[in-house]
Task: inverse folding
């Protein structure tokens, strides 16, 4: 989409980055998640760069989420892989150049089989880590094209140390195209499909 007001967009992204900085400072958990949700609801309801159409802003109920489930807060092991270009198709026109550069593996909250997702590098100026995923709720309880968990270009980063990265699926969120067709968003690659239904994070109303 056309950027009509770069200064406003700059401010919006700074505010998002500040939200995640507070989460990392206070620790990923129920209380920081509630603060993050409150801040995000306020931003979506009031900011000129909100992806929500103007006539739909100001909903006091806020964005719908599954209840916080601590079982979906995970410290996953990161393992580098041979870099492979993997463009992500968009919800409308376009594609985002991605490079698969690592995998993350973790024990499932339920069941016994280790789960694995790919980590991508967004191959544009500056770059950034991107983790979109699909799961068993897509198309019914959540958006069919998947949700996002990490996007360091926008500051959506829950922290990492050594060979581990914090994945808290309670912070999973929908791409902007869910709120308005003004946006064309990268869809989660089919390879990043979890068979489990991840009933944590943002959901459809």
Result:
């Amino acid at each position: 989409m056309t950027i009509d007001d770069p200064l406003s967009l700059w401010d919006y992204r700074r505010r998002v980055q500040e939200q995640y900085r507070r989460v990392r400072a206070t620790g990923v958990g129920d209380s920081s998640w509630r603060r993050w949700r409150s801040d995000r609801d306020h931003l979506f309801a009031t900011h000129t760069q909100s992806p929500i159409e103007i006539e739909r802003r100001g909903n006091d109920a806020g964005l719908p989420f599954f209840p916080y489930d601590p079982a979906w807060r995970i410290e996953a092991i990161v393992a580098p892989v041979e870099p492979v270009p993997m463009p992500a198709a968009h919800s409308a026109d376009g594609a985002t150049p991605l490079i698969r550069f690592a995998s993350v593996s973790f024990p499932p909250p339920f069941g016994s089989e280790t789960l694995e997702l790919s980590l991508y590098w967004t191959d544009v100026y500056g770059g950034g880590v991107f983790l979109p995923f699909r799961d068993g709720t897509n198309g019914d309880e959540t958006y069919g094209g998947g949700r996002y968990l990490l996007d360091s270009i926008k500051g959506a980063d829950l922290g990492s140390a050594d060979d581990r990265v914090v994945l808290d699926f309670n912070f999973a969120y929908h791409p902007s195209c869910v709120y308005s067709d003004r946006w064309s968003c990268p869809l989660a690659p089919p390879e990043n499909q979890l068979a489990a239904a991840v009933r944590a994070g943002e959901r459809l109303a």
Observations:
- The helical segments are 6-26, 30-46.
- The beta strands are 73-85, 88-89, 95-96, 98-106, 115-122, 129-133, 147-151, 160-161, 164-168.
- The two ends are 25 Å apart (CA to CA).
- The longest strand covers residues 73-85.
